[in-house]
Amino acid sequence: MKGFVYLALLLVSIGGVLWLDFRYRLFYWHDAWRALAVTVAGLVALTLADVGGIALGIFKRGDAEIATGVVVAPQLPLEEPVFLLLLILSTMICYTGAVKMLGRRGESAS
């Protein structure tokens, strides 16, 4: 059970970010197809960057007790794409939230 702590925390965090998205209609609940395209493109780009870093010997998989130990490719743990998904979702929720807030501020100033 200890080996799934990090993955479980990542999934709970993704759930929290998606709840914020749902609550304020920021990303997926604003425009699902564009959000999906951004998410897939970001996940592919960041995973390719990780694979490149692994190939160059820059990144190596650690042996954390809280990780599953499952690898999806040499030196690429299962948790990495899940973390990248959380990173993308968090970034886009923050970005779209800021745009929404600044847009409202601009409307009230006129």
Q: Could you please describe the fold and organization of this structure?
A:
- This protein is mostly helical.
- It has one domain (2-109).
- The chain has three helices and two strands; from the N terminus they run ααββα.
- The chain has helices at residues 5-24, 32-55, 79-109, and strands at residues 71-73, 76-77.
- Strands 1-2 form a two-stranded antiparallel ribbon.
- β1 (71-73) and β2 (76-77) form a beta hairpin.
- α1 runs parallel beside α3 (79-109) and α2 (32-55) crosses α3.
- It is elongated.
- The termini are far apart.
- The mean pLDDT is 92.
Counting DSSP E segments of at least 2 residues, the number of strands comes to 2
Helicity, in percent?
Answer: 55-70%
For the biggest β-sheet, the strand order reads 1-2
What average pLDDT do the residues reach? 92
Largest sheet: 2 strands, antiparallel
The best one-word shape is elongated
The figure for the number of domains is 1
- Note the total helix count: 3
Q: What is the rounded Rg?
A: 17 Å
Determine the N-to-C terminus distance.
Answer: 56 Å
Strand content: under 5%
Low confidence ranges:
none
Order of helices and strands: HHEEH
Summarize the structure.
This protein has 110 residues and is mostly helical. 68% of the residues lie in helices and 5% in strands.
List descriptors.
110 residues; mainly alpha; 68% helix; elongated
